[in-house]
Design brief:
1029 residues, mainly beta, single chain, 34-stranded mixed β-sheet, leucine-rich repeat, LRR_dom_sf, seven-stranded parallel β-sheet
Length: 1029
């Protein structure tokens, strides 16, 4: 009998130990064999409760501790051992704010505690108190997000039995050597170390390697700013290693991926961490591999199928390339796969029959090919599929819409085409989100979409769907929250009897841009609507005053632009709109005062003709963007605009404003100020402040006088400066060299004078791509070093981009600069200044001397105009190096000698004018130069050869004397130059309409091949074509 009792006791002890360690990683909800609570233990718990400050309305444990209940071992959060001593105390989430401040707390007299949690409380940022060291029996300690702070107390060294330590969110604020040594020297048996978001710094010290029993290391969200230590791969029992978002850099040790015991590896969110995936070992235990938002690169090896236990892999936002390995189909335990925002190429591999797979994200790669039904067979648990932002093509398999568990399907921004086949019954589909926008899908909207009864969000915009559709066709989709049919070839019919609120009572976003609408939908009383886009339609007449009440005050975004509305129904009252776009209508009369809540206000391109309200600035205190461009607004610029302190873009261009510019306007936070084409007078105020944030300043086509203010040098971010077509009278403002970010400089058509010799000194315009100082009175020679220092004109431009000012980052809304080219009196205004467009225009001045040979270093130059000066000498042969040159005008100078043969090699040259110089000899022969008309060479009596009607008669190529023809006499009276005047306009967003250069076949071809796709969302930008008054 004694032997039986001994065996029973041994079995009980072993069972308890196994039970403890099997649950130790999961928290402290352990199963204990409790005895009757000892009286002293009960009194200590009651003292602890009385000393604690907590919110009884939020408490679920302390609030139930009652002295009348004898057995404290049954109180919530309390467990006892077999002798009735408190061995486990869980006070997590009890809203405790005070009461554990020092070693005298009764908590620290519960000396038999083995498990203690104070996590998720709000203790008032006090230092970790001494006293924890009294709890020498502790195996588990969780103080995460408790409100404690400070360094690890010295008495932690008494906790030699501690196995698990959780200090996540505790503000330890210690260096690597400090916290690593404190833990490794005090807690020799530690198995779980969790110190996420503990304000630790690096580097991580090698003293941690002493903790040979560590199996779980969680250090996420600290600022280590160091490399990953190699010794992490040396812990023999390591199962979990997470060090995400820690500012780690360098190359991740490859042997980390070879640790066979490792189940979870999370290195995500370390933007400077590099590495690649090695060949994976057989029998790896890896289940979770998270490397997103790092600089990992290279191919993903086919050996990935060695990770037979893998359930979650996230490589999103890295730089992986090559094909996605087909061996992924062997990862039968896979639940989640995220490969988004990389450089993967090739076709999508089959995921068929991966029955555990719930999420696939392959968005933002370079994947091609089709996606047939066979790729998705057997995916019974798939809930989320994102293939957006690739170049996938072919027809869409309708079976995708009826996968048995699918809820979210993103197929947008691809090249899918054809008709979606109606071959499945979709009424039972669980699909909630379907995005097909920005593809080439065609035909009528498929009936299968009208049956998706669980659908919350449907986006079909920017396709080629056609035909007529009634909003009532979607009547079965009663749960719809988001509907976008914009920019197709649809004609959306509006029923005069079917009210939208009754069809879609939960609708929050309705986007029907460019849907051939002729009537407003019946939206009155739709209280849930927050976004309404009816732009680019055929709506006309009055804007009814009930539209401002739609959404019952929650309508935040309203876009009625590009219609034919002729007036606002009176009386009207704006509500709490954040985005109000009425531009490109025919609204006349007084300017509506925008709501004070508005962040974006665009009323440009209407017929408003009143003065600006004197107090309008007080209504723009929340606004970032305000435009009244292209109206007929009278009066002066009200100083109240200076009270719009958040305003980043102010565009009042192309109006009839007069008077002076309020000096306080430059003291504001503006990033863009456009007052072009008004009647503004006086000096430019010299009030640009320190820290000036202006990036675009366009004051052209006014009557401004005086000098360019020197305080403008404080605008160090200036990229576009247009002061052309005024009455400014000054020497060249040499201090503009300090604006190192300049990309466009226009001073043309003023009264500037003197030489520009200061530009011969080292200038700092590395980005300048357009410089126009034409039609002034500048004189002297052209500095040789000027052309050598214009670096942006001397290097090849990479890709197509546009000059713009991004002012609402989250919505990708930006102000688009523009340029006007004048060719023989024809103004061509480009809606985007491409970064590949470059121009130098020094025409109509009094420059003399030679054209420097250094001009040949501007190999990215597109337009060069030095006409109407007094330049002499030879045309430099180095101009033949300007391989991208498309327009060259050297007319009306005193140039002499022969035309360099190198000009014949300029294969992209589309406009050439060398007329009215003193050139002699034979016109060079070449396929391109032969295309120019006689007018390109008139007024050079010594020239001969095609296309002139003058033959070369001697060996030197000189012509026999001939009287000028009537055509030459007529042309001599004309000014054939091409004059470039930069005119900055206002274009918000990602518009695609672009007026090509009429003289440039090459640029047209380049632009149409590469111009960016429109993103057809409600905050999508609209394209403004400004009239050239």
């Amino acid at each position: 009998m004694p032997n039986y009792d001994m065996r029973f006791k041994m079995f009980s002890s072993v069972f308890f130990i196994l039970l403890f360690f099997s649950n130790s990683d999961l928290g402290i909800n352990l199963t204990f064999v409790s005895g009757q609570c000892l009286q002293d233990q009960k009194q200590l718990l009651l003292q602890l409760k009385n000393n604690l400050t907590y919110d009884s309305s939020l408490s679920t444990k302390l609030v139930q501790w009652n002295e009348s209940i004898d057995d404290c071992c049954g109180w919530p959060g309390v467990k006892c051992d077999t002798r009735g001593r408190v061995s486990s105390l869980d006070l997590s989430g009890e809203s405790i704010t005070d009461g554990i401040n020092d070693a005298g707390s009764s908590l620290f007299r519960l000396v038999f505690l083995e498990n203690l949690s104070l996590a998720q409380n709000s203790i008032g940022a006090i230092d970790l108190p001494f006293g924890f060291g009294e709890l020498t029996e502790l195996r588990y300690l969780n103080l995460s997000n408790s409100g404690f702070s400070g360094q690890i107390p010295l008495d932690f060294s008494n906790l030699t039995r501690l196995r698990e330590l959780y200090l996540d969110g505790v503000n330890i604020s210690a260096k690597g050597s400090e916290w690593c040594n404190a833990i490794s020297s005090s807690l020799p048996n530690l198995r779980v170390l969790s110190l996420s978001n503990a304000y630790l710094t690096g580097p991580i010290d090698s003293s941690l390697v002493k903790l040979r029993s560590l199996s779980v290391i969680r250090l996420d969200g600290n600022n280590f700013s160091s490399q990953i230590p190699e010794f992490f791969a040396d812990f023999p029992s390591l199962r979990i290693l997470t060090i995400s978002s820690c500012n780690l850099f360098g190359v991740a040790p490859a042997k980390l991926f070879q640790v066979k015991s490792l189940e979870t590896l999370d290195l995500s969110g370390n933007g400077d961490l590099e590495g690649s995936l090695p060949e994976f070992p057989l029998n790896s235990s890896l289940q979770h591999l998270l490397l997103s938002n790092t600089k990992f690169s290279g191919n993903v090896s086919e050996s990935i199928d060695s990770l037979r236990m893998l359930s979650n892999i996230d490589l999103g936002g890295c730089s992986f390339s090559g094909p996605i390995p087909s061996s992924i189909k062997n990862l039968t335990q896979l639940v989640s796969l995220h490969f988004s925002a990389n450089h993967f190429v090739g076709s999508i591999p089959s995921f068929a029959f991966l029955k555990n797979l719930t999420e696939i994200d392959l968005s933002g790669n370079r994947l091609t090919g089709q996606i047939p039904d066979s790729l998705w067979e057997g995916l019974e648990k798939l809930e989320f599929l994102d293939l957006s932002g690739n170049t996938l093509e072919g027809e869409l398999p309708a079976s995708l819409f009826v996968l048995p568990s699918i809820k979210v399907l993103h197929l947008n921004n691809n090249s899918f085409s054809g008709v979606i086949r109606d071959s499945f019954n979709s009424s039972s589909s669980p699909l909630e989100v379907l995005e097909l926008n920005v593809n080439n899908l065609e035909g009528p909207i498929p009936r299968i979409l009208f049956e998706l009864r669980n659908l919350l969000s449907l986006s079909l915009s920017a396709n080629k769907f056609n035909g007529s559709v009634q909003l009532t066709d979607f009547r079965k989709l009663t749960n719809l929250v988001y509907l976008d049919l914009s920019y197709n070839y649809l004609s959306v019919q509006v029923s005069e009897t079917a009210a939208i609120p009754s069809l879609f009572p939960r609708l929050g976003t309705l986007m029907l841009a460019s849907c051939n609408l002729q009537k407003l939908p019946l939206l009155r009383n739709l209280s849930s609507l927050m976004v309404l886009d009816l732009s680019d339609n055929q709506l006309h007449g009055e804007i009814p005053n009930w539209i401002w009440e739609v959404g019952d005050g929650v309508l935040r975004i309203l876009n009625l632009s590009h219609n034919q509305f002729s007036h606002l129904q009176e009386p009207y009252a704006f509500r709490n709109h954040h985005y109000l776009d009425l531009h490109s209508n025919m609204l006349p009369g007084e300017i509506p005062v925008p709501p004070r809540t508005a962040v974006f206000v665009d009323m440009s391109s209407n017929n408003f003709s009143s003065p600006l309200p004197a107090n309008i600035g007080y209504s723009l205190t929340s606004s970032f963007f305000f435009s009244l461009a292209n109206n007929k607004i009278l009066g002066t610029i009200p100083p109240s605009l200076c009270n719009a302190t958040r305003l980043r873009i102010l565009d009042l261009s192309n109006n009839r404003l007069h008077g002076k510019i309020p000096s306080c306007l430059f003291e504001n936070t503006l990033g863009v100020l456009n007052l072009r084409r008004n009647n503004v007078i006086g000096d430019i105020p010299d009030t640009f402040p320190v820290g000036c944030g202006l990036e675009t300043l366009d004051l052209s086509w006014n009557t401004l006088q005086g000098k360019v203010p020197k305080s403008l040098t404080r605008c160090t971010e200036m990229g576009v400066l247009n002061l052309g077509n005024n009455d400014l009278n000054d020497n060249f403002p040499c201090w503009l060299k300090n604006l190192t970010g300049l990309r466009v400089l226009v001073l043309s058509n003023n009264k500037f004078h003197g030489n520009i010799s200061c530009l011969g000194d080292s200038i700092t315009w590395p980005n300048l791509q357009i410089v126009n100082i034409a039609s002034n009175a500048f004189n002297g020679v052209l500095p040789e070093n000027l052309f050598r220092d214009l670096k942006a004109l001397s290097v090849d431009q990479d890709g197509l981009d546009h000059l713009n000012f991004l002012f609402l980052t989250a919505s990708h809304i930006y102000y688009q600069d523009s340029v006007t080219l004048t060719l023989k009196g024809l103004d061509v205004e480009l809606e985007k200044i491409l970064n590949i467009f470059t121009a130098v225009d020094f025409s109509n001045n009094h420059f003399s001397g030679i054209i420097p040979e250094t001009i040949g270093e501007l190999k990215s130059l597109y337009v060069l105009n030095l006409s109407h000066n007094a330049l002499s000498g030879h045309i430099p042969g180095s101009i033949g190096n300007l391989e991208d040159l498309e327009s060259l005008d050297l007319s009306f100078n005193n140039l002499e000698g022969e035309i360099p043969q190198q000009l014949a090699s300029l294969t992209f040259l589309s406009f050439l004018n060398l007329s009215y110089n003193n050139l002699v000899g034979r016109i060079p022969q070449g396929s391109q130069i032969q295309t120019f008309a006689t007018s390109s060479f008139l007024g050079n009596e010594g020239l001969c050869g095609f296309p002139l009607n003058r033959t070369c008669t001697d060996h030197s190529g000189s012509p026999a004397f001939q009287h000028p023809t009537s055509e030459e006499e007529e042309q001599k009276a004309l000014d054939n130059g091409i004059y470039i005047s930069a005119a900055l306009g206002f274009f918000v967003g990602l518009g695609v309409i672009f007026w090509p250069l009429v003289f440039s076949k090459r640029w047209r071809r380049c632009y149409y091949n590469f111009v960016d796709k429109a993103v057809m969302l409600v905050l999508r930008p609209h394209h403004h074509q400004l009239e050239d008054w």
